[in-house]
Amino acid sequence: MSRIGKKPISIPDGVNVNYDKDTITIEGPKGKLTQKIHPWLKIEVDKEGKQVLVKSSSDEKKFKALHGLIRTLLANNVHGVTNGFSKDLEIIGIGYNAKLQGKDLVLQLGFSHPVKVEIPQGIKVEIKNQTNPGRLTIMGIDKQLVGQFTANIRSLRPPEPYKGKGIKYADEIIRRKAGKAVAAST
Questions:
Q1: Looking at the DSSP assignment, which residues form a beta bridge with residue 44?
Q2: CB of 172 within 8 A of CB of 136?
Q3: How far, rounded to the nearest angstrom, does the alpha carbon of residue 75 sit from its chain's CA centroid?
Q4: Residues 139 and 146: beta-carbon distance below 8 Å
């Protein structure tokens, strides 16, 4: 048995969990998420005890890995429909900025043209500071979607090590390098 997979997932008040043959639906105050369940696993929903248990049919390595994965995905879904997920980005550079235009995020990143990024359904973008350093907060109920959208925005202009310009996660530390001028003077 997977150590993570054995832990029960507690269901907070206001969250409804429905299990069908191969799909589990989790509904909460922030929205509704569905997760496919592999046929090797069994799900037990205890509505009185307010918890969900994931059971595996074998102790083979591939079963253990799948057991832990599905349990973590379900726990993330429960957390998402109650509290949601968010990631912060910083845009650093002279002339770099971010604006919202309808359903698009328009970024000026030092290119000859603005970069338009369509915001997917289920994601909300909040701009806290428009210019240097710009701050974006990406929020949603699906952890995978929030993380992927944030990574896609960061990949448009990753931070560079000499001046630190680019888009970085708010908690990311960029290792700075000394330029040619510093190396030549020593």
A1: 53
A2: no
A3: 14
A4: yes
Could you give the CA distance from residue 138 to residue 55 in angstroms, rounded to a whole number?
A: 34
The answer to whether the bond into 8 is cis (omega within 30° of 0) is no
Domains of the chain: which residue ranges? Answer: 3-82, 85-169
pLDDT recorded at residue 78: 94
Are the C-beta atoms of residues 85 and 33 closer than 8 Å to each other? no
- Cα-based angle 27, 123, 146 (whole degrees, multiple of 5): 90
Task: Round to whole Å and give the CA distance between 150 and 145.
Answer: 8
Q: Which two tokens stand for residue 112?
A: 């000859």
Distance, in Å, from the CA atom of 31 to the CA atom of 80, rounded to the nearest integer, reads: 8
Q: At what angle do helices 143-156 and 61-82 cross, to 10 degrees?
A: 90
Structure tokens belonging to residue 162: 């000499």
- Positions in the chain short of pLDDT 70: 1-2, 182-186
Question: Superfamily assignment of 3-82 in CATH?
Answer: Ribosomal protein L6 (3.90.930.12)
Confidence (pTM): 0.88
